Amino acid sequence: MSEVPVVICGAGPVGLTMSIxxxxxxxxxxxxxxxxxxxxxxxxxxxxxxxxxxxxxxxLYPEMTEFSLPPSWCQEFLYLDTLAGELIGAxxxxxxxxxxxxxxxxxxxxxxxxxxxxxxxxxxxxxYPLAEIRFSTELVEHSQDDDGVTVTLxxxxxxxxxxxxxxxxGADGGRSPLREASGxxxxxxxxLGSFVNKTSAGGQPAVRPRCCGPLPTATSDASSRxxxxxxxxxxxxxxxxxxxxxxxxxxASSAGCAT
Length: 259
Ligand SMILES: Cc1cc2nc3c(=O)[nH]c(=O)nc-3n(C[C@H](O)[C@H](O)[C@H](O)COP(=O)(O)OP(=O)(O)OC[C@H]3O[C@@H](n4cnc5c(N)ncnc54)[C@H](O)[C@@H]3O)c2cc1C
Known about the structure:
Layout: E1 2-9, H1 13-24, E2 29-32, E3 46-47, H2 49-57, H3 61-67, E4 76-80, E5 87-92, E6 110-111, H4 114-126, E7 131-134, E8 137-145, E9 148-155, E10 160-170, H5 177-181, E11 225-228, E12 233-238
Parallel strand pairs: 1-2, 1-10, 2-7
Antiparallel strand pairs: 3-6, 4-5, 4-12, 8-9, 9-10, 11-12
Bound molecules: flavin-adenine dinucleotide.
């Protein structure tokens, strides 16, 4: 049975950030993720200032800034009947204003699609020699005793492996079965709302939120990304980047990551 000081379950932003933090402290980790790559779905896009601050300490500020929306585009949520349709109403979002957190941090709130964030964090985490990241590997069982935790890892072909660790980090998402199995509860209401992301790629956005200034001229590799919730709210748009990127271990690089 192999041994590693820390096993991290889940390669979302939490697990990847944990991997980077522990690598920077000189602690070897094994991160397992059941998907074959980091998620390619845009999902979250609001990044609080404190998170921007932490990721900037990893040297990621320039990359984050490059793919984030301009701050002036992020001050309102717009509600429309369809993506290109009539404006029904606008809701200011004070926490996203460029100067919203200026009393407590030098870092601004950022707005960027999570597929770009997750890819950035994965490339950064993978650049540390102390971090082993295994995709297509599911943590299917764990048992704890006085000295540590034994986890059972299962590969896509069904083969299994036991790993012994001192610490198991449950970064397996908001519903976290690991946390639940460990008896760690959360308080307060859940399921406060539901969202649906709609992504369009190629050319200019079909609609321009009114808070946006003039759109940048489309370049050959530019694409547009509009995301909307089920109520037709245009949450953000971006002309940076390409279609949803598929990240995979073969293309890992340390670009933009301060090791
Ligand atoms: C449409 C939408 C919009 C959102 N908007 C926002 C927003 O604006 N701001 C915001 O802060 N949040 C937003 N969120 C939520 C945000 O996406 C999550 O909070 C965030 O991804 C949680 O990160 P995480 O690392 O905890 O978990 P996840 O990103 O869910 O990652 C967990 C990972 O663990 C893996 N995993 C689970 N179980 C196992 C196992 N047994 N073995 C191996 N791997 C496992 C999963 O495959 C997954 O990749 C939004 C979500 C959606 C869907």
